Amino acid sequence: MLTSEPSLGTLRKLSLLARTRWHWRRTRDPETVFRRVSAVASPEQRRSDAKPGDTLPAR
Description:
It is a single chain. The chain is mainly alpha-helical. The chain has helices at residues 10-27, 30-37. Helix 1 (10-27) runs antiparallel to helix 2. The longest helix has 18 residues, at 10-27. The two termini are 27 Å apart. 0% of the residues are buried. The model has no long low-confidence stretch (mean pLDDT 79).
């Protein structure tokens, strides 16, 4: 169980902002941008040994 609210540091926020902006300028497609920047893995990115609740970084 999580006991504290998740937070991001300033460097991580700036990194995500830059990646989001880059992908948005290239594709102008919100779903593609989300898949490229999000830390939530899509079904195609899952490993065969991953548990149902596990996520993988999208890189």
